[in-house]
Amino acid sequence: MLTPALFLDRDGVIMENRANYVRSWEDVELYPQAIAALARIRSAPYKIILVTNQSVVGRGIITLAEAQAINDRIMVEVMEGNGRIDAAYICPHAPSDNCNCRKPRPGLLLQAAADHAIDLSRSIMIGDALTDIAAGQAAGVAQTILLLTGRGRNQAQLSQTQHLAPYQIYATLSAALSNLV
Ligand SMILES: [Zn+2]
């Protein structure tokens, strides 16, 4: 029995995006509206999965273990806010590695789908960048949503929108999820 997933990008979706990467817990500033929204949908029939590009690892700035520890602590904070994140997937590569998991490629979503018996055709991808939209569409999810938090407001103005199938735009994760359930 396959279940749908709500795939969430991390930086700019549930927390502030940082121009110089999230290197330590001091760089993490969760969005209160996102934490509250995750609490509201905790019983929704979706796996909730973070999919995040962290080239900060591939560039040698922090280790993969450090990046995973930051995600683990984010998941604890979400749980303490009465929400849940069921799993977190990281692409640790630098752009020059040309891997299959760095968004806009769909590798992280495909890996998560295989690990968690996810029905991509009923799943949703939410991000603050067009690369998130592209990754979701390449993975075959039903719905892709661009948020205007993080990099989203600039991304929404980029002309690359032309190569993408239609997607929805919401101001915040909270606004996007209020239409979900
Ligand atoms: Zn990768």
What does this structure look like?
The chain has 181 residues and is of the alpha/beta class. The chain has a single domain (5-178), classed as HAD superfamily/HAD-like (Rossmann fold, 3-Layer(aba) Sandwich), CATH 3.40.50. It has seven helices and six strands, in the order E-H-E-H-H-E-H-E-H-E-H-E-H. It has helices at 32-40, 55-58, 64-80, 107-116, 130-139, 152-155, 173-178, and strands at residues 5-8, 47-53, 87-91, 124-127, 143-147, 168-170. The chain has a six-stranded parallel β-sheet, with helices on both faces. The longest helix has 17 residues, at 64-80. The model has no long low-confidence stretch (mean pLDDT 96). The structure holds zinc ion. Zinc ion binds next to loops.
List keywords for this structure.
181 residues; 15% strand; alpha/beta; 6-stranded parallel beta sheet; Rossmann fold; 6 strands; binds zinc ion
Secondary-structure topology with pairs:
Blueprint: E1 5-8, H1 32-40, E2 47-53, H2 55-58, H3 64-80, E3 87-91, H4 107-116, E4 124-127, H5 130-139, E5 143-147, H6 152-155, E6 168-170, H7 173-178
Parallel strand pairs: 1-2, 1-4, 2-3, 4-5, 5-6
The chain binds zinc ion.
Number of helices: 7
CATH class: Alpha Beta
Unreliable segments of 5+ consecutive residues: none
Separation of the first and last Cα atoms: 21 Å
- Element order: H for helix, E for strand: EHEHHEHEHEHEH
Helix content: 25-40%
Overall radius of gyration: 15 Å
Mean pLDDT: 96
Categorize the overall geometry.
Answer: globular
Per CATH, which architecture? 3-Layer(aba) Sandwich
CATH topology: Rossmann fold
**What kind of sheet is the major sheet?**
6 strands, parallel
